[in-house]
Amino acid sequence: MANGTMRYWAAAKAAAGTHEEPYAAGTLAEALTAALAGRGEEFARVVRRSSFLVDGDPVGTRPHESVALPEGGVVEVLPPFAGG
Predict the structure, then answer these.
(1) Quick count: other Cβ atoms within 10 Å of Cβ 45?
(2) What is the pLDDT along the chain (84 residues), one digit of tens a residue?
(3) Per the confidence metrics, is the pTM higher than 0.85?
(4) I want to staple 43 with a disulfide (CB 3.0 to 4.6 A). Which of 14, 15, 25, 37 is the partner?
(5) pLDDT at 84
(6) Helix (H) or strand (E) segment spanning residue 43
(7) What pLDDT is stored for residue 75 in this prediction?
């Protein structure tokens, strides 16, 4: 289990109601499950469409269960952005 920070951008920030929050999780999947708890469908919809960075490295198409989170790490939740 690692402790770190999850940061939300654009629509993810609006749907979460916060810019960032702490996580305590071993994997990205665990952190996202905790973040989704108690939040509405709009937040879940945004997260499903988002891409993720862990300490600046793109997660890409890797299964979220396989992405280990580092102690003190930062997870960036990036929804699709409009424009060019």
Answers:
(1) 13
(2) 999 999 999 999 999 999 999 999 999 999 999 999 999 999 999 999 999 999 999 999 999 999 999 999 999 999 987 554
(3) yes
(4) 15
(5) 47
(6) helix 41-49
(7) 98
The tokens for 82 are 């409009």
Q: How far is CA 78 from CA 1, 26, 42, 50, 56, in A?
A: 23, 20, 15, 5, 12
Q: Is residue 73 a contact partner of residue 34, using CB atoms and an 8 Å limit? A: no
Question: How far apart (Å, rounded) are the C-alpha atoms in residues 33 and 17?
Answer: 17
Chain position carrying tokens 């109601």: 17
**Residue-range domain boundaries for the chain:** 2-71
Q: Would you say how long the chain is, in residues?
A: 84
> In this structure, which amino acid lies at residue 74?
V
Asked if 52 and 28 touch (Cβ cutoff 8 Å), the reply is yes
